[in-house]
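Reviewers asked in the last cycle whether our approach scales beyond single polypeptides. To address this, we selected a multi-component target totalling 404 residues and predicted its structure end to end. The input consisted of the following lines:
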Amino acid sequence: MKTEKKGPSGRPRGFDTGEALERAMLVFWEHGYEGASLGRLTSAMGISATSMYAAFGNKEELFRKALERYTEGPSAYLDEALKEPTSLGVATAILSGVIRTTTAPSRPQGCMGIQGALAAGESAQSARELLVGWRNDGYLRIRKRFERAVGEGDLPAGADAGLLARYVTTLAHGIAVQAASGVCRDELQAMADAALRVWPPL
Amino acid sequence: MKTEKKGPSGRPRGFDTGEALERAMLVFWEHGYEGASLGRLTSAMGISATSMYAAFGNKEELFRKALERYTEGPSAYLDEALKEPTSLGVATAILSGVIRTTTAPSRPQGCMGIQGALAAGESAQSARELLVGWRNDGYLRIRKRFERAVGEGDLPAGADAGLLARYVTTLAHGIAVQAASGVCRDELQAMADAALRVWPPL
DNA sequence: GGAATTCTGTATCGATCACTACTGAACATG
DNA sequence: CATGTTCAGTAGTGATCGATACAGAATTCC
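The resulting structure, written as structure tokens, was:
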């Protein structure tokens, strides 16, 4: 029994969709949904507008897929951080991961999940709502992890997991804004270290 | 000796520039520089495009003046907060001010100084740079205030005023992002209270 | 009241937006 | 090789972008 591999008749695609999506992600990351014009996107992707529409549907879907790639690539530190054995380890790993991702010298400064579309006009409302959901999902996963920590005795019984998750999320988002403003990595890391020196901040 | 008040010959302006600027500020605040089209702006201002250009120059200058109005209006809590007698009072007042401003039910959610243009395309780079300077100015004023607190003995001699200012700024910006995502006021205030329960976070 | 000056609305500018019809080239299958 | 299918580039769609030319209306100065 072998997997059905029917040959797709026709001319094969002349570019790598993964790499093109990576390039598109970087443009959205740097300029936001509204600031990323189709001309700039396709130019960075190295393909024509026709090929982009054939491969990804439209600008909105391209953004959605670019966000997925962002989640599994530059933002994958969150998955790893949630596996840390203690809540303090989780919080520490999240903040250092955010700092590393938002201040990497070879990549856009800031976080695509925030500056991709924080406020927007009519044409970008769906992108904005997508990112609101993306950020809320991150918060929920952190909260759930902290709830587990309360159950395990890692956090005191009276600890408010939601409040702690909100605290870490707020710091993470604030760091992303600072990074977008050009604040350097070391300064942010020193600040994060100080913020977590008392844990939990009950 | 009386102030020279030469009569400006010609038809007087038919609208109140202050109120028009207030309306424009709200549009920029809600939709950002790029998301605020001229049509939407002039429609909200209640004037024609011609009148807008005659009164404010162009979109870029309109944004600059709207930001000034934002600084002196919704963002005026910072001036007051810096007058608090202690560094903890300053930090507390800043965060509660941010929360009040970014979650007011009758106004756009979030902070114009951030979502006005966090990431942007080519045409909005000047607006983006203007906001980077605006945020950095806020940071510098807080830092200077904390340096004073160190000199006064309000903060311990070894305290790093820059790091503390960065901490408060990061929380403030993070709160603004949360507010833009729809997080409610009470939750943010509870989080801010917890964040400042240990002060300074040395 | 006449002239000069400034405001306001209409209509429109060229440029760019996201998006697509069309043509021809490139490749897989039979 | 012949046929069918898909890709990619050119050119151009209507809509909207920010910004203006123009002409009529309104007000002040002389």
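The first helix of chain B runs from residue 17 to 35. We regard this as preliminary and will revisit it once experimental data from Aim 1 are available.
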